[in-house]
Write a structure and sequence with these properties.
The complex is a heterodimer of chains A (88) and B (321).
Chain A lengths: L4 E9 L5 E6 L2 E6 L13 E5 L2 E6 L1 H13 L3 H10 L3
Antiparallel strand pairs in A: 1-2, 1-4, 2-3, 4-5
Chain B lengths: L9 H14 L6 E7 H9 L2 H4 L4 E8 L7 H10 L5 E5 L13 H6 L4 E3 L3 H10 L4 E8 L4 H13 L5 E7 L2 H10 L7 E4 L2 H6 L5 H5 L5 E3 L4 H17 L4 E3 L11 H10 E3 L2 E4 L3 E4 L3 E3 L20 H6 L5
Parallel strand pairs in B: 1-2, 1-7, 3-4, 3-5, 5-6, 7-8, 8-9
Antiparallel strand pairs in B: 10-13, 11-12
Classes of the chains: A alpha+beta (88), B alpha/beta (321).
């Protein structure tokens, strides 16, 4: 849970609370966007995810670098386990 | 420098390492604390200690929310799972952490309903799916995680979900840094500031470290180059006799933090008078509890009396409390 996971917003979900389908290495899950409402998230944006919530918008290059770093740290499997664990 | 060639920008890493060696005065010993457990993990994994000269020492800080949680809090959380109508939910990181009566995983093996969730919002979903049970979310984490818990509690209230509560163990990083600086046997020259916590709180809460304690602090990212650049920036300040807050991780950390996250935390949480940290003792105003206005979603009954510090004790002798 300590290192943030990069993902790409695929679809903003309808509803009272801002959330989205976010894709992380082919896995699509629901992610809450309430903490980055001010950044006006949209499909195609990359975000850093922590415990099911997008924490900040980042560039695509930063997302690629973050995933590479998770792999170097040996944390990529744990990160994907976390993402798969989010409800759909 | 065993892993350097695998990194992005190995040339930049070599340059940063050379700059550290150039800046480090051989007549001086530098003791720099990396506050965040994520940094500690990266430093070990990447072998960064091998890159640093012998007189630049990295001291590991208190920034791992699992490691700093005292056994008593784990016991208190697990005591809630002892009730047959309770489902205890917790992050996977918590499952093997021992309390005096065993770990959450051991309680699960004994037949208690203890479930892993990866998001507090999923704990709320468990509550929605089990209206005949009460779902407790065992919340841990620094300011990175606390806003997510806050939004979940706000959602529970807005949607009128009454069979959900939070056992709040959120801690705040700045009072821990203050406690470290106040400890007489700890000499430090500067801090590598936490990355993800700072995406929420920004850099301003660290300003007293520079202005009052006279120590430089550089908020840094988690890549090897980020950490080394953070150390370069610290050594440059120390060479000039400066103490400032600098932000090496600007690509993720805005100076003012995340307004929505801070607003959610302020809505739901207030500071506890004190909280126990494993290995550090009691630190004043270093943890969050749920405000009375959200008391219906607090797994700990509202009370400020130290005699009532344990929810088990409170449950057993509520009248005396």
């Amino acid at each position: 849970m300590c290192l943030a996971i990069p993902g790409k917003i695929v679809e903003i979900l309808p509803g009272e609370y801002l959330s989205a389908i976010v894709e992380v290495v082919g896995v699509r899950r629901r992610v809450e966007l309430g903490l980055i409402e001010d950044e006006h998230p949209a499909p195609g944006d990359w975000v850093l995810i922590h415990v099911g919530f997008a924490m900040s918008k980042i560039s695509e290059q930063d997302a690629i670098d973050q995933m590479r770093m998770l792999a170097l740290l040996g944390e990529d499997d744990a990160a994907m386990e976390e993402v798969r664990g989010y409800s759909q | 420098m065993k892993f350097v060639d695998e990194f992005r920008d190995p040339e930049m890493i070599r340059k940063a390492a050379e700059e550290i060696r150039r800046l480090a005065n051989p007549a001086r010993q530098y003791r720099l604390m990396e506050v965040c457990g994520g940094h500690t993990h990266a430093i070990y994994r990447f072998g960064l200690k091998d890159v640093l000269p012998a007189n630049v020492e990295l001291i590991h800080g208190p920034g791992c929310p699992v490691c700093v949680l005292p056994m008593g809090r784990i016991d208190d959380g697990l005591s809630m799972a002892g009730r047959s109508d309770v489902i205890l939910t917790a992050f996977g990181d918590m499952m093997r952490v021992p309390g005096t009566q065993g770990s959450p995983l051991q309680h699960k093996a004994q037949g208690r309903d203890v479930r892993i969730v990866y998001s507090p919002m999923d704990a709320l979903k468990v509550a929605r799916a089990n209206p005949d049970k009460h779902v407790v979310f065992f919340a841990i984490g620094f300011e990175t995680t606390a806003p997510s818990t806050a939004l979940t509690v706000m959602r529970a209230r807005a949607q009128g979900i009454r069979n959900f509560s939070v056992f709040c163990n959120h801690v705040t990083i700045v009072p821990a840094i203050r406690a470290i600086l106040d400890s007489p046997d700890m000499r430090l020259d500067g801090f590598v500031g936490p990355g993800h916590v700072s995406t929420v709180i920004g850099c301003r809460p660290y300003e007293w470290i520079a202005s009052d304690a006279g120590k430089p602090i550089v908020v840094s990212g988690f890549e090897p180059l980020d950490i080394l650049q953070g150390i370069v920036m610290l050594l440059r300040q120390l060479e000039r006799g400066e103490a400032r807050v600098e932000n090496q991780y600007g690509r993720a950390v805005p100076w003012v933090g995340n307004r929505a996250a801070l607003t959610a935390m302020a809505e739901v949480f207030e500071l506890r008078p004190y909280f126990e940290w494993r290995g550090m003792g009691f630190i004043s105003q270093s943890a969050l509890r749920i405000k009375d206005s959200y008391g219906d979603w607090d797994a700990e009954p509202a009370s400020t009396s130290p005699a009532c510090a344990s929810p088990i004790r409170r449950r057993r002798s509520a009248a005396r409390c």
